[in-house]
Amino acid sequence: MQTELLEQARIEVPVIPWPAPPKRLIRVSAQLYNEPSDYERLADALRAVLPPRGLE
Fold it and tell me: How many domains does the chain have?
C-alpha cells in the first residue's frame, strides 16, 4: 500500500502492519505547512487503493 500511494498519488506516508497483517496502521504526521486539502487528498488516495469494506 505504501508503494501504491507513492506511485499512484505521489503521497509518501508510512504504512505499518499492525497489530498483524492484513491490518495496517497509517502514520500521518501533521505539520504547520500541511493544509486540510492535503489530508483530503490522502483520504481519497486511500479509498482508491483499499478494497471496499466487507470484501477484505
Answer: 1
- What are the angstrom distances between the C-alpha of 51 and each of 1, 25, 27, 45? 11, 15, 19, 12
Structure-block grid coordinates of residue 53: 469494506
Q: Does residue 55 lie within any of the structural domains?
A: no
- Look up the pTM and report it: 0.79
pLDDT in tens for each of the 56 residues of the chain? 999 999 999 999 999 999 988 889 999 988 999 999 999 999 999 999 988 876 55
Instruction: Find out whether 21 and 35 touch, Cβ atoms under 8 Å.
Output: no
- The range of the structural domain enclosing residue 37 comes to 2-49
